[in-house]
Write a structure and sequence with these properties.
CATH topology of one domain: Rossmann fold
Organism: Idiomarina baltica OS145
Helix content: 40-55%
InterPro entries: ATPase-cat-bd (IPR021993), ATPase_P-typ_cyto_dom_N (IPR023299), ATPase_P-typ_P_site (IPR018303), ATPase_P-typ_TM_dom_sf (IPR023298), ATPase_P-typ_transduc_dom_A_sf (IPR008250), ATPase_P-type_domA (IPR059000), HAD-like_sf (IPR036412), HAD_sf (IPR023214)
Structural class: alpha+beta
Subcellular location: Cell membrane
Radius of gyration: 32 Å
Oligomer: single chain
Number of helices: 28
Mean pLDDT: 76
Pfam families: ATPase-cat_bd (PF12156), E1-E2_ATPase (PF00122), HMA (PF00403), Hydrolase (PF00702)
Keywords: ATP-binding, Cell membrane, Ion transport, Magnesium, Membrane, Metal-binding, Nucleotide-binding, Phosphoprotein, Translocase, Transmembrane, Transmembrane helix, Transport
Number of strands: 29
CATH superfamily of one domain: HAD superfamily/HAD-like
Shape: elongated
CATH architecture of one domain: 3-Layer(aba) Sandwich
CATH class of one domain: Alpha Beta
Strand content: 15-25%
Distance between the termini: 50 Å
Length: 799
């Protein structure tokens, strides 16, 4: 009953309530404590709709086994409530939404194939990718066509229970799964020891001394011990196989289940009629070895699972919000945009926002890996997950929950873990046909042995079914990708998908933007020439540059304390700004942009920013930035690997050639517009080059999208980060080399996994079909084959 919920535990989800959270819902005249605003909203909706039977009939001892939507809730669109969704759904467009669901009963690659195939047929689904390693489903859908509750219900109809992924429940899920495995393993292990002792008595030396009555007695005792193994320990295999068959396909647990149930029924029949062969020791040992393999795989998966959520676990549960001149402590999930929050020294910032205080020093190591404090000024952006290392701060909230930068980083990480290389997609596609072929071979084996040696037909067939189960093959790519993502995350590198592994195979060209990539992008004014009133020039330049996102703009936007606001303004990416001020047209930008009005004008020095009106040039500025310390090392290392390096920049040819000579870059293409850059990449690709592009500016997003693979930095514009495939969080260019090395190493390990898994299956099949492998040995071999694949992939976890 609901009234039996313990103190300190959430009334709705039965999870511990974080310290300091004081939220509740009214239920049957009492205030019931809940752990967060999401649970509060769901519980209130359930109560308002008169569906309180859910709380009366759920199993309080097994909260994780309570169905997500009981019979009374199947028509309730509780997960479509915007307040509920704000905690786990990320909006990516007008109607496009993304989220990650936890699907606890995914067991193999065939499960992933089944789920993806079912959702692919669903109208409104944009993308669905299953990650077998951490049992998550990453989905993107059109909210105007289909609701999230419909997606969850569709999964339930094919036997998969999906829950919105919440980081505060992950430990409970992990512990529940581990405990379930340990219980089943315990039963199988104890029963196997007893049955093997009886089998020893039956088969090793004392058989001739046993009368039929004693033999029958020992068979019955074996049956008693083996039955719990079959009925309890083997349940995960039966459930998975049944779901697969109900959905009109076959997965890898189908032959396993047939082997277990077939051997048990044959042995039971022998016991009943008093003659024949029994296989109780084989099926008990078989089940024990299978469960051991699955359990060790589970432990390996959990390592990646815990790491992939560690960033979110540091987010605070409480926030200090201003109201009527005072402060109130509320759950961080209840924060809204434009709320004013106060952050005390040493506290973690719970939401993205804009700094209202004069200055701040924050530790952004959770996002970037860089432990040095970052100085912020009034108006600067502050990201959730940063730690305040200065005095008390006031921040205006701009994004909360799943819309924060940190949540976006975790979403990208989940997408990368879920994505699959082409070779794995092909294997998933043929997985069901492989199992069907295996069943056909097993049937032929049984018929042939029934003709030659009927007494051995059954156990030879069982060995074939078990030994050739392609579990290791299905784990070859997911475990490798998980290891690679884990490794890169520890280097503070985020990858969005498996195209990294595809493109690194033929990588031969790396193209660099100049500003902010090979240089720091921290510009300063080196020199200037003025041809009109300097105060007027400073006011105009400041007013225009404050409306530009180009890195150069920061060096000129503070020239005046009283910047002039333009009446109209138009940005030309890579060229400059055209504006109207008090009826006069002005151009501010590169030399060629100014020469449209003044074709014969030439700058006096290496000026890269010019101000002019239609009558005359008013000023020229030389703005430059510092070369990255690691740029030369990166270029040199790439050239040693035989990779061609190209600098693609909109800067002047003289400045570009100077930097290229300093860094020993192979080729320079200067004075390039965004369209020119895209054309250059296309031209290289048409020449059969595999091109990686590294850039960070807003005008780099088209060329980043065009490249075979693109990288950008954490400081880059939002458009650049959206277009890029890889984001370097700690701003170190040397991470480019780490990405290449990791991708190549991952391909090697993935290839080793495939060779081992395929080689094992092809080798063991004829041996098992010839009757040279006992069923228990087949189970041991299959489990060890899967563990070899997992252990090989774990090499990627070592830096």
């Amino acid at each position: 009953m609901a009234s039996d919920v313990e103190d300190g535990v959430c009334f709705h989800c039965l999870q511990p309530i974080p310290h300091g959270v004081e939220l509740s819902v009214a239920f049957q005249g009492d205030d019931k404590a809940v752990c967060c605003a999401g649970c509060q909203a769901v519980a209130e909706t359930i109560i308002e709709h008169g569906l309180t039977a859910y709380y009366k009939h759920r199993d309080l001892d097994k909260p994780q086994q309570t169905p997500l939507l009981p019979e009374q809730l199947k028509e309730l669109d509780v997960y479509d409530n915007p307040d509920v969704q704000s905690d786990f759904v990320r909006n990516t467009g007008d109607h496009s939404k993304q989220t990650t669901l936890t699907v606890n009963n995914i067991t193999c690659g065939a499960c992933a194939w089944l789920i993806e195939r079912e959702l692919a047929k669903t109208p409104g689904m944009i993308k669905s990718v299953v990650n077998v390693s951490n049992q998550r489903l990453h989905i993107e859908w059109d909210g105007s066509i289909i609701k999230l509750s419909d997606i969850i219900a569709r999964l339930a109809r094919i036997g998969y229970q999906a829950l919105p992924f919440q980081q505060n429940q992950i430990e409970a899920n992990i512990n529940a799964r581990r405990k379930g495995f340990i219980k089943r393993l315990g039963v199988a292990g104890l029963a196997t020891m007893q049955v093997m002792m009886i089998a020893f008595a039956l088969y090793f030396g004392v058989v001739s001394d046993l009368d039929p009555t004693t033999q029958q007695y020992l068979w019955v005792v074996s049956l008693v011990f083996a039955t719990p193994v079959i009925l309890y320990s083997g349940q995960p295999f039966y459930k998975s196989a049944l779901k697969s068959i109900q959905a009109g396909s076959v997965n890898m647990d189908v032959p396993v289940s047939i082997a277990l149930i077939g051997a048990y029924i044959a042995s039971l029949y022998a016991v009943i009629i008093g003659r024949g062969e029994v296989y109780f020791e084989s099926i008990s040992m078989f089940t024990f070895f299978l469960l051991t393999g699955r359990f060790l795989e589970l432990l390996a998966k959990e390592k990646a699972l815990k790491f992939s959520t560690n960033r979110l676990t540091y987010m605070p549960n409480l926030a200090h919000r201003e109201y009527d001149g005072g402060l109130e402590d509320i759950a961080a999930k209840q924060l809204k945009i434009n709320d004013i929050i106060v952050i005390k020294p040493g506290e973690t910032i719970p939401a993205d926002g804009v700094l209202l205080s004069d200055k701040a020093s924050v530790d952004e190591s959770l996002l970037t890996g860089e432990s040095r404090p970052v100085t912020k000024a009034t108006g600067d952006g502050i990201v959730a997950g940063s730690v305040n290392q200065s005095a008390t701060l006031r921040i205006k909230v701009t994004a909360t929950a799943q819309q924060t930068v940190l949540a976006g980083i975790v979403a990208m990480q989940d997408a990368a873990l879920a994505d699959k290389p082409k070779v794995q997609k092909a294997i998933d596609h043929i997985a069901q046909y492989f199992v069907m072929t295996l069943l056909a071979i097993a049937a032929v084996t049984f018929l042939v042995w029934s003709w030659f040696d009927p007494d051995h037909a059954l156990w030879v067939t069982l060995a074939v079914l078990v030994a050739t189960c392609p579990c290791a093959l299905s784990l070859a790519a997911p475990t490798s990708i998980t290891g690679a993502v884990h490794r890169l995350n520890r280097m503070n590198v985020l990858v969005k998908g498996a195209q990294l592994l595809e493109s690194v195979k033929h990588l031969d060209t790396v193209v660099f933007d100049k500003t902010g990539t090979l240089t720091y992008g921290q510009f300063k004014l080196i020199a200037r020439e003025d041809y009109a009133d300097i105060d007027m020039i400073n006011a105009i330049v400041s007013g225009l540059e404050q409306r530009s996102e180009h890195p150069i703009a920061a060096a000129l936007s503070q020239l005046s304390d009283q910047p002039t606001s333009p009446d109209a303004i138009q940005n030309y990416p890579g060229q400059g700004i055209l504006a109207e001020i008090a009826g006069t047209d002005y151009r501010l930008g590169r030399c060629e942009f100014i020469q449209i009005w003044h074709p014969n004008w030439q700058p006096k020095r290496q000026s890269n920013v010019i101000l002019a009106n239609r009558q005359a040039v008013l000023a020229e500025f030389q703005v430059d930035d510092e070369v990255r310390e690691d740029s030369h090392d990166v270029i040199s290392a790439l050239k040693l690997q035989g990779i061609r390096t190209i600098m693609l920049t909109g800067d002047s040819d003289a400045r570009a050639q100077t930097l290229a000579s300093q860094l020993d870059i192979d080729e320079v293409l200067s004075e390039q517009s965004p369209a020119d850059k895209v054309d250059t990449i296309k031209s290289l690709q048409q020449q059969k080059h595999t091109v990686w592009m590294i850039g960070d500016g807003i005008n780099d997003s088209p060329v980043l999208a065009q490249a075979d693979l693109s990288m950008t930095f954490a400081h880059a514009s939002d458009m650049a980060q959206t277009a890029a495939d890889v984001v370097l969080l700690n701003d170190q260019l040397t991470r480019v080399l780490d990405v290449i090395e990791t991708a190549r190493k991952t391909r090697i390990i993935m290839r080793e996994n495939f060779i081992w898994a395929a080689g094992y299956n092809l080798t063991i099949l004829p041996i098992a079909a010839l009757g040279l492998v006992a069923p228990w040995a087949a189970a041991l071999g299959m489990s060890l084959s899967s563990l070899v694949v997992v252990a090989n992939s774990l090499r990627l976890y070592r830096l």
